[in-house]
Design brief:
- The chain is α+β, with helices and mostly antiparallel strands and 190 residues long.
- The protein contains 3 helices and 13 strands; from the N terminus they run ββαβββββαββββββα.
- The chain has a 5-stranded antiparallel sheet with strand order 3-4-5-6-7.
- The chain has 2 domains: 2-110, no CATH class; 116-189, Beta Barrel (OB fold (Dihydrolipoamide Acetyltransferase, E2P)), CATH 2.40.50.
Length: 190
């Protein structure tokens, strides 16, 4: 067996290349939490890289929020360039001020989602498509949607997330906060 250090914890790993899927009891033991005080991060061009304390090699990684709406700075999965999870940060405490700035910038860029402030119009187009014209916190936007009910999610009560034909996401954090006209246009489509 080989041993690898994950944060501040050592874990034995079998030398088998492709282990069979774990049983639920084994899956709970496989949770790899990372100790932020033993990690360093940096930007290398447009890539985020991480290095463990005492190691020389930097590894390209991505950050994935496990609970993006309810815990935006907690339970962050770090995955390598092959999308394999390295481990999970329970929170961002323990990072240096510079590392924390880099991580927060990366999360902000990765989860950049315009918030709809006003719905200006929704016009029917061909083939069951609707053209939305909206005002967002990033300016005016136009996008096409087909089958609103299939492309609409409500991750929290009153919080709507719309996905357009190109896969772009637009959020309405609080439907009740929309002006009366915007709510009426939205209700007509629901």
């Amino acid at each position: 067996m080989s041993t690898t250090e994950i944060g501040s914890r050592e874990e034995s790993l079998p030398e088998v290349a492709e282990p069979s899927p774990p049983e639920p009891a084994e899956a709970a033991d496989d949770l790899r939490t990372l100790d932020a005080s033993l990690l360093h991060v940096r930007r290398n061009g447009n890539r985020l890289e991480i290095r463990r304390e005492g190691e020389d090699d930097w590894q390209q990684v991505k950050l994935v929020r496990l609970f993006p709406f309810t815990e935006p700075e907690r339970w962050i999965s770090i995955v390598d360039k092959d999308n394999k999870e390295i481990g999970i940060l329970p929170d961002l405490k323990g990072f240096s001020a510079e590392d924390l700035r880099v991580l927060r910038d990366e999360l902000r860029l990765r989860y950049l989602v315009p918030e709809i402030i006003h719905i200006l119009s929704i016009r029917d187009r061909v083939a069951m498509m609707a053209e939305w014209t909206v005002e967002t916190d990033r300016g005016k936007a136009k996008f096409l949607m087909r089958n609103l009910r299939d492309k609409l999610q409500e991750p929290l009560p009153g919080y709507l997330s719309l996905t357009d034909m190109e896969g772009n996401r637009f959020d309405i954090p609080d439907v009740a906060a929309l002006d009366r006209r915007s709510r009426r246009l939205l209700e007509e489509r629901l």
